[in-house]
Design goal:
By secondary structure, the protein is an alpha/beta fold. It folds into three domains: 197 residues, no CATH class; 150 residues, Alpha-Beta Plaits (2-Layer Sandwich); 252 residues, TIM Barrel (Alpha-Beta Barrel), CATH 3.20.20.450. The chain is 61% helix and 14% strand. It has 24 helices and 17 strands. The strands form three sheets. It has an eight-stranded mixed barrel with strand order 8-9-11-12-13-14-15-16, surrounded by four helices. A five-stranded mixed β-sheet has the order 2-3-1-6-7, with helices on both faces. The protein has a two-stranded antiparallel sheet with strand order 4-5. A hairpin with a 2-residue loop joins strand 2 and strand 3. Helix 2 packs parallel to helix 4. The longest helix is centred in the N-terminal third of the chain and has 56 residues. The protein is rod-shaped, with a radius of gyration of 48 Å. About 2% of the residues have low confidence.
Length: 666
């Protein structure tokens, strides 16, 4: 018995729970409430039209038979209630209803539907005693067809549909079953069966409606999540993770948009900023310190520019600034402030770093016709300032720069199309022992005489060839001519030859150089290969590998233009160098500049400590030579001993030099 009681209890709980779910408004589901409300608003007019029209048709049938209060007063009161409800719902049809208000409105409808169902049922049954058999049958038809119509109209409000059906059908079945008429009893049974079937269909439709609403909600949530993920991916794709600045992709998007939307007479001002000497910091202190420095620089730029410019990190140590002020003077002032701020020290946990930055500036549409062209102009201005006389300062792209770009394009085309084998030639400048003035050898210097351009400066055409990737067409020709020329010299004389960054950057380029050296007609021990300090700044590890390969041929390695860049002492120590060449900028007026003397003496001491030779370039006077000797440098080169000369002049120069040496010794 206890088991049977437990089962009965469970069944009772299941039935009660089922009935509760059928007759409950879903207040715990806001989206479903709003959907039910929206659907019900559209069906309210039809519901009340069915009720009012059917009521007055039935009233008209009993107009002569029933009392006036049944045929007029009651229908009128019920109609007023129905019309009032229709007006109320109609006014709220476009309102944005919150879930709470929707739930309250549906709850009122649920209660009112039961009351109206009871009122209409009582009224119609009240007419029954006053009618004939046919008129009484109309009452049965009225109640049956009206409840079916209401069920359809209340499809999306299942509790109201169930309560209306329960009230009307209960009254219908009980009343007509009690009449004793087999026809009315059969009609009651039919109505009950049809109502049950319709309620079953309504439940299925209501379930599908509920599932549709929830699936849309889940889809909306999924779409929202997808959109949020997409937005986050887009943000990350356009953000530099180290500095939290917009990245290169974001920059070009913003640049093109600014140019596209630029109003007439309102220029777009762009700055491209490159740090001076950042790579040696990475190499000396490590990438973690370099990353920390970049973050501090980004913070300093953000703080300085504020609302006056949008900062981007293009990659590495390169940044861009899209200025919001279109006045050149204001942009130049902010550029000066940026460069000044970067020269202030950066205090990191393990060291204090001093650095600078060079800023190239350009304006659209004055100096550029598109976003990419504006970037190229600003980048060119930065490059010119950085490797010219404006390092660490802002530089505006101007007409001279435009002319320089055009000339660079012409030179590049001439390199690509010219007869370089004929047009390229070498001149040679002597290298002398600083103490004994013994002739040690010659440095081969490139020259280019183009039929259309005339003599082109090597500084100009080599830089253009390196940027345009055409150096591979120049170095093999010059190196072959240098090796052939040195083959006719006395074996005591050495050949110095400058290698470009491009000659060391790729295995293919390095392989060409190694092949020419191996096939040369001079002993590799007589060959000095010079690399510039700027080559170290590109990729030190790749350069180290290339230098080691060159060293294996038996050639000596020199570091040219030392002191003009940012080579660290650790890098100098790691490279297998045989000689440092001190740049001529430290030598001009050396005898009258104590500061320059200290620098050159320091570099000479460094060479002694490393066990390598020290060569001073640009010696032009006897006083400068005397100072160099006093400092203790090993080798010298400059106009004092001889200007660069063609290959044909070398035999007589060598003979004259050796003759003077013999006479001096005798």
């Amino acid at each position: 018995m206890p088991k049977r009681a437990a089962e009965n209890s469970l069944i009772g709980q299941f039935v009660v729970g089922g009935l509760r779910s059928v007759f409950t408004i879903p207040h715990d589901d806001p989206e479903l409430l709003k959907a039910q409300y929206a659907a019900f608003v559209r069906q309210i007019p039809l519901l009340y039209i069915i009720l009012v029209s059917n009521t007055w048709i039935l009233s008209a049938t009993y107009w002569q038979a029933a009392p006036l209060w049944l045929t007029l007063v009651c229908p009128l009161v019920l109609s007023i209630v129905c019309v009032t409800r229709v007006v109320q719902w109609w006014r709220r049809r476009h309102d944005a209803v919150e879930p709470g208000k929707a739930g309250a409105a549906l709850s009122r409808t649920f209660v009112l539907s039961g009351l109206l169902a009871a009122a209409f049922s009582i009224w119609s049954i009240g007419l029954y005693p006053f009618g004939t058999g046919e008129m009484q049958a109309q009452i049965a038809f009225y109640m049956a067809i009206t409840v079916i119509g209401c069920i359809f109209c209340l499809t999306h409000l299942r509790p109201a549909a169930f309560v209306v059906t329960a009230v009307v059908n209960t009254a219908f079945i009980l009343f007509f079953a009690a009449t004793g008429s087999h026809i009315f009893q059969a009609m009651a049974l039919n109505v009950a069966m049809v109502s049950i079937a319709m309620l079953a269909i309504l439940s299925v439709n209501y379930r599908d409606f509920t599932l549709l609403v929830r699936s849309r909600r889940e889809l909306h949530v999924t779409q929202a999540q997808t959109q949020a993920l997409s937005d986050e991916n887009f943000r990350l794709a356009n953000l530099d993770s180290l500095t939290n600045l917009p990245n290169r992709r974001s920059f070009f998007s913003a640049l093109n948009q600014r140019v596209a939307t630029a109003c007439s007479g309102s220029p777009v001002m762009l700055g491209v900023l490159d740090l001076d000497g950042f790579k040696p910091i990475n190499d000396t202190h490590g990438h973690a310190t370099g990353d920390a420095l970049l973050s501090m620089i980004a913070d300093r730029l953000r703080s300085l520019c504020g609302n006056n410019g949008e900062i981007f990190r293009l990659g590495g140590d390169e940044f861009a600034i899209l200025f919001r002020d279109s006045r050149a003077s204001a942009v130049l002032d902010l550029g000066e402030a940026v460069c000044t701020a970067l020269r202030q020290t950066f205090d990191l946990p393990n060291c204090t770093i001093r650095i600078s930055g060079t800023l190239g500036l350009a304006a659209y549409p004055e100096m550029a016709g598109s976003g990419p062209e504006l970037f190229e102009r600003a980048d060119y201005a930065m490059y010119r300032a950085k490797y010219g006389t404006g390092r660490g300062r802002p530089w505006f792209f101007g007409l001279e720069d435009e002319q320089a770009i055009r000339r660079s394009s012409i030179i590049e085309q001439a390199i690509r199309t010219g007869d370089l084998q004929t047009e390229l030639y070498l001149v040679f400048q002597p290298i002398v022992d600083a103490t004994t003035e013994k002739l040690l050898g010659f440095e081969a210097l490139a020259r280019w005489d183009n039929p259309d351009l005339g003599l082109v400066s090597p500084t100009e055409f080599i830089a253009i060839a390196e940027r345009s990737g055409t150096m591979a067409a120049i170095t093999p020709i010059l190196l072959q001519k240098a090796l052939d020329a040195a083959a006719s010299w006395p074996e005591t004389l050495r050949l110095s030859f400058n290698l470009s960054i491009a000659d060391l950057a790729t295995p293919a380029a390095l392989s060409r150089v190694l092949g020419l050296i191996a096939a040369g007609r001079i002993a590799t021990g007589r060959l000095d290969l010079e690399i510039t300090e700027t080559a170290i700044l590109n990729d030190f590890r790749a350069l180290l590998h290339a230098v080691q390969m060159l060293k294996q041929t038996g050639a000596s390695i020199s570091l040219d233009d030392f002191g003009t860049g940012y080579t660290s002492l650790r890098q100098v120590q790691e490279l297998p160098l045989d000689r440092l060449k001190i740049d001529r900028s430290f030598v001009t007026g050396l005898d009258q500049s104590p500061a320059s003397q200290k620098i050159v003496k320091l570099l000479a001491s460094l060479c002694d400590d490393l066990g390598i030779h020290c060569l001073v370039e640009g010696v032009e006077t006897a006083a400068e030579l005397a100072t160099v000797r006093e400092i203790g440098c090993h080798q010298v080169q400059g106009f004092y001993f001889g200007r660069p000369m063609p290959e044909a002049a070398l035999p007589s120069f060598i003979a004259d030099w050796n003759g003077r040496a013999e006479r001096a010794a005798g």
